[in-house]
Amino acid sequence: MDNADPLAGYRDRFSILDPDLIYLDGNSLGRPTRDGVERIQKTLHEEWGRGLIRSWRGEWIGLPEQVGDVLAPVVGAAPGETLITDQTSVNLFKLASAALAATGRTDIVSDSSNFPSDLYVLDAVAHAAGGQLRIASADRTTGPTVDDLGPLLDEHVGVVSLSHVGFKTGALADLGAITASAHDTGALALWDLSHSAGVVPVGLNGHNVDLAVGCTYKYLNGGPGAPAFLYVRHDLQEHLATPIPGWFGHADMFAFDPTYSPAAGIRRFAAGTPPILALRGAEAGIALSAKAGIAATRAKSVRLTEFLITRYDASLARLGFALGSPRDPNQRGGHVSLLHPDAYPITQALIDRKVIPDFRAPDTIRLGLAPLYTTFTDVWDAVEVITDVVASGAYREYPAEPEGVT
Amino acid sequence: MDNADPLAGYRDRFSILDPDLIYLDGNSLGRPTRDGVERIQKTLHEEWGRGLIRSWRGEWIGLPEQVGDVLAPVVGAAPGETLITDQTSVNLFKLASAALAATGRTDIVSDSSNFPSDLYVLDAVAHAAGGQLRIASADRTTGPTVDDLGPLLDEHVGVVSLSHVGFKTGALADLGAITASAHDTGALALWDLSHSAGVVPVGLNGHNVDLAVGCTYKYLNGGPGAPAFLYVRHDLQEHLATPIPGWFGHADMFAFDPTYSPAAGIRRFAAGTPPILALRGAEAGIALSAKAGIAATRAKSVRLTEFLITRYDASLARLGFALGSPRDPNQRGGHVSLLHPDAYPITQALIDRKVIPDFRAPDTIRLGLAPLYTTFTDVWDAVEVITDVVASGAYREYPAEPEGVT
Q1: I need a labelling partner for A227 at 20 to 30 A (CA). Which of A249, B81, B314, B388 fits?
Q2: What percent of chain A has pLDDT above 90?
Q3: ipTM of the modeled complex
């Protein structure tokens, strides 16, 4: 399968310092790209060290929009619709606040499978507008649907905000149908693409999505805490006002006008000075994803997750595991969750054996398969190690209690 | 003077790739520290490349607070009061919003000398609370005083927010008296320390300051767009709620609780995932400032600016320049502004001659003297070059029109 993989060559574009390590946590933090390492060092020495302030007049000033345009085809946006700026929570705050103000409504609809940090922010935004966050709740391993959300939609709801891929289950939400349903009731759709950007085609323009945010440090391999992105559909940009108007979003930032005038395009959603070193890392990771192409990446992602589930059926199902992700690849993103009552000690035993998964309390082991560097051999070997650790009972030597992991 | 300088040895702690360059723009972007360059490379290779997700469980997770504690003595704060997170505009938004909510008031007072980006944010925050931003306005090169602001204070004002050092004039505001005056009318004082942190003693605790924000890329030498800081006095922390509640501010972020519960201390003002590479740069720059000590740094800063003004009087005053900064060192921060009708072409001519100042439209040349690496010889030589460029008329060969500079 690796020999037949058209993306196999991309693994060499990453800095892999420990080739024996099976790294299956790219959906929490992707690996460094070789280009990113080189670009950050050049930025450190040449642009900062030698260029100093002159580099702002050169390439730096336009980077948030330029790198946004590199990301655009990966998420199905047009040029000028995507900006790399701030962190996901801050961008979600900005766009949700702007959307409520633009619709003149007070309430937000989300789903219990959404990332908790998103729920915190959305709840705060709705309360600040005098409304509330309405959360659809369902016990399921599939993504939220129109049937789940429809009953919560009415004329008070200005924003429907969900994760495209569920952080626990890896389940895909029906982005097109939910967006259309939000539009039917006069709401705007705001998607968190953190677990889909760079691994699942999003089709923002194709589905007429209004707003989106997401991080760049998972499948886009931008680096730890690399700046996030935001997307605002072109025709909406002039109708939305950021609640945090900073100088990088001003129409003429170096005029030092005491009054704020928003920039014409996507830049109006910027706030403070962008983090250049981190942006350079994001730029390289995003460019590599754009080069590979989202269609080819998704094709390999489906093959990887299918292969993992085949191996799960063959080896793990009989060892007390349950599958925590959808079986239908059309309902699944780039990671697969395995449920086990001893998920925490199993995770610790795996890490000691150089297989890095991700633990999510209380019972979830996430395996994030990054198509640009995860091999089918990685999947095979990882399942062999998991099988051994569980069948032998070796994991029982590890503490049963969780500690912090991301 | 260089031979007698107790901080002279600190220049060697910076990566200086072009020793002939006279860099007088540290108040826009400081130079890279050697430790920062090394630390960022170690983070890139060892922590991200080799450690991968495991580094979050190690050092990364606590960095925003740890580096905040390194900064604390530089600005006169106690441990647990300072957090490195987000950008200055976002932090200003968070603290100004939280302060209005806590005081139950709607209006904010500032001054026309404040950095325009701060005015934009404060105006937005006041409007969102149903109030307005009241701006004291005065045509002066000294900093705002209680006399300027007092008439604007009443029972509707919840926040007084100013820059400690004016970005154009370098003038110091009377932080202690203004803070006390705000308290007298029941308002909280929120200071922007971007142009004072690392060069002027702030004495946050000593002056009983409530709230502060600032960047780390000027005198703290943290790197382009490095994350900013925020300060909340210890006894206020539990009474303030961030308007952007993200997972890094949660009491137990890895419990993935669907409901937000703020962390006990300063961490409650964090939002999304911190930018680790940039934080490492900030850490090294801040640590170097802490090592030098703010008293010794200020003493050299005063000597540098005094020497520059002496040289201005001797050589530049007769060439059409006016001094745009206070003559009294007690009223002056770390940079000195020279006013000239041809400031823009003069700036361009200086850059071509390897003297890097900063231009601020329409007529200001800022000279930022960074005590940790600027020498008295730099000051002497720079004034010689300025004198030559203006006396010879060589600047007239340069375009008269400004373009973007930071």
Answers
A1: B81
A2: 95
A3: 0.97
In sequence order, the 6+-apart residues with CB closer than 8 A to the CB of B16 are A49, B31, B373
Best mutation target among B63, B88, B247 (most A Cβ atoms within 10 Å) is: B247
Query: Contact, B153 vs B109, CB < 8 A?
Result: yes
Which residues make beta-bridge pairs with A401? none
The pLDDT tens digits for A50-86 are 999 999 988 999 999 999 999 999 999 999 999 999 9
Q: Does A17 touch chain B (CB under 8 A)?
A: yes
Which residues constitute the domain of residue A265? 37-292
In a domain, B69, yes or no: yes
- Average pLDDT for B3-23: 97
**Distance separating alpha carbons of residues B360 and B344, to the nearest angstrom:** 8
Contact A47, A406 (CB under 8 A): no
**For chain B, what is the domain count?**
2
pLDDT attached to residue A140: 79
- A40 touching chain B per CB within 8 A: yes
Distance of CA A98 to the CA centre of its chain: 21
- Do residue B182 and residue B258 come from a single domain? yes
Q: Looking at residue A383, what is its pLDDT? A: 98
My answer on whether A163 and A66 are in the same domain is yes
Of the three residues A256, A274, A292, the one that is the final residue of a domain is A292
Q: Which of A263, A292, A321 is a domain's end point? A: A292
What's the rounded Cα separation, in Å, for the pair B11 and A111?
55
d(C-alpha B217, C-alpha A309), whole Å: 48
Provide the mean pLDDT of chain A: 96
* CATH number reported for the structural domain that contains residue B300 in this entry: 3.90.1150.10
Question: Any catalytic annotation for residue B291?
Answer: no
pLDDT of residue B405: 44
CATH number, residue A138: 3.40.640.10
Same domain assignment for residues B220 and B306: no
Distance CA A310, CA A319 (A): 15
Does residue A65 form part of some domain? yes
CA-based nearest residue to B138, from B129, B122, B127, B149:
B149
A137 in contact with chain B, both atoms CB, cutoff 8 A: no
Contact (Cβ atoms closer than 8 angstroms) between residue A63 and residue A84: yes
Give yes or no: residues A313 and A196 share one domain.
no
Residue with tokens 């642009």: A47
- Asked if the structure places residue B205 within a domain, the reply is yes
Per-residue b/e over A201-219, b at no fewer than 16 CB within 10 Å?
bbbbbebebbbbbbbbbbb
Amino acid A403: pLDDT: 59
B128 lies in the same domain as B19: no
Q: Is residue B403 part of a domain?
A: no
Can B381 be counted among the known catalytic residues? no
A180 plus A245 within the same structural domain = yes
